[in-house]
Design a protein that fits this description.
single chain; 246 residues; alpha/beta; Undecaprenyl pyrophosphate synthetase; 6-stranded parallel sheet; globular; binds 3-methylbut-3-enyl trihydrogen diphosphate; binds magnesium ion
């Protein structure tokens, strides 16, 4: 990580979220099938997990499979699920070595049973690690998440567990899949697409957005550093004026 020394460790983003995009195009450029791109995306995942752990970032959230991705060809979905199971098995060692705790957000009930089983296994085995919290967004859709939160809150109101007058922003936060995570500080999307694709809509309200042309399988620790360096050059005003901050 050559660029790591340009990062101010006092002002690290607490929570980095990444939309890992461009696997299909990466494979196509090499005349290969899309799945080849997904397989090579694993290297980039290891790069960012190790990179965040080494820098001391608290939370990393990776968008691995969206609710909309279920609409892809069946063979691709199957391959992605198989890749998930194998990666979890392979990466357990990386997680332990780097003191990483695994967490998951999304509609996990929709995943194949093998994937659910392996996820629960790795979550259990890493639950005492107190370094980086790595959250995988799987079968995740932000609108689905918000819909579920509203349903639960509405039920609680109906059953007099909470009163409408007391519903505030923290009530909503507490009912999202991300209730244990801080807001996103830095959102990275690879592959040149400049959209959010139903990822963490509530949680990125004040995130800094960083888009790069790099395709996901090519993303390295130094690309992560570049994004953090760029983030640290920005002034986060949260509605205030520049003068108020200084
Ligand atoms: C991201 O790469 C991985 C997933 C969405 C699962 P893509 O598969 O979307 O790659 P492109 O966008 O087609 O290049
Ligand atoms: C977003 O990428 C989902 C993940 C990275 C898991 P997509 O490739 O599915 O997004 P769109 O469809 O191009 O917006
Ligand atoms: Mg894509």
């Amino acid at each position: 990580m050559e660029l790591a020394n340009q990062i101010n460790k006092e002002r690290l983003p607490k929570h980095i979220a990444i939309i890992m995009d461009g696997n299909g195009r990466w494979a196509k450029q090499r005349g290969k099938i899309r799945i080849f791109g997904h397989e090579n995306g694993k290297n980039a995942v290891r790069q960012v997990v190790e990179g965040c752990a080494e820098l001391g970032v608290s939370c990393l959230t990776l968008y691995a499979f969206s609710t909309e991705n279920w609409n892809r060809p069946k063979l691709e979905v199957q391959a992605l699920m198989k890749l998930l199971v194998n990666s979890l098995k392979e990466e357990l060692k990386t997680f332990q070595e780097n003191n990483v705790r695994l967490n998951v957000i999304g509609d996990i009930s929709a995943l194949p049973s093998k994937a659910k089983k392996e996820l629960l296994n790795v979550i259990e085995q890493t639950k005492h690690n107190n370094g980086l919290v790595l959250t995988l967004a799987l079968s995740y859709g932000s609108r689905d998440e918000i819909k579920n939160a509203i349903k639960t809150i509405a039920d609680k109101v109906k059953n007099n567990i909470i009163s409408t007058d007391l519903i505030d922003e923290s009530t909503i936060n507490e009912h999202l899949y991300t209730h244990n995570l801080p807001d996103v500080d830095l959102l990275i999307r690879t592959s040149g697409e400049c959209r959010i694709s139903n990822f963490l809509l509530w949680q990125i309200a004040y995130a800094e957005l960083y888009f790069t042309e790099t395709l996901w399988p090519d993303f390295t620790k130094d690309d992560l550093c570049k994004a953090i360096i760029n983030y640290q050059q920005r002034e986060r005003r949260f509605g205030k004026t520049s003068e108020q901050l200084n």
